[in-house]
């Protein structure tokens, strides 16, 4: 259809875009005209305007999802042992913090802080040359 615009992928309206929509609608422009100027769908413009008239605000609503079980201070107490000793276990951190949270939650919090778990080596990684030298050393002292 020649009059149809190509649909854009979904993206949130910025604070500036929301303010622009409200300003144009307050000035008396139509929803269709505003949508064309800000390059958004008429539905997005209508929803933004309805929120403004109903609530008196254009701020985005907070996202859905579970609330955090720990405070910022407890989050820092979770991070501290992982920074001091990278080989510390999740159960040790959980016991130190004293908050009833799952070990998976601790892992997720550490991942948010860009901290990865590091396990100590069970054995040193040896190159083939190291293996050969160790074998010679053992054979020389076997008798």
Automatic annotation (TrEMBL):
Any one Gene Ontology molecular-function term assigned to this protein's record: DNA binding
Stretch forming the signal peptide: none
Pfam families: HTH_Tnp_Tc3_2
GO biological process assignments: DNA integration; DNA transposition
Highest taxon above the source species: Eukaryota
Gene Ontology cellular-component annotations: nucleus
Intracellular or extracellular location(s): Nucleus
Annotated SUPFAM superfamilies: Homeodomain-like
Transposase Tc1-like domain segment(s): 75-140
InterPro entries: Homeodomain-like_sf (IPR009057), Transposase_Tc1-like (IPR002492)
Name of protein: Transposable element Tc1 transposase
Source species: Trichonephila clavipes
UniProt lineage: Eukaryota, Metazoa, Ecdysozoa, Arthropoda, Chelicerata
Gene: tc1a_547
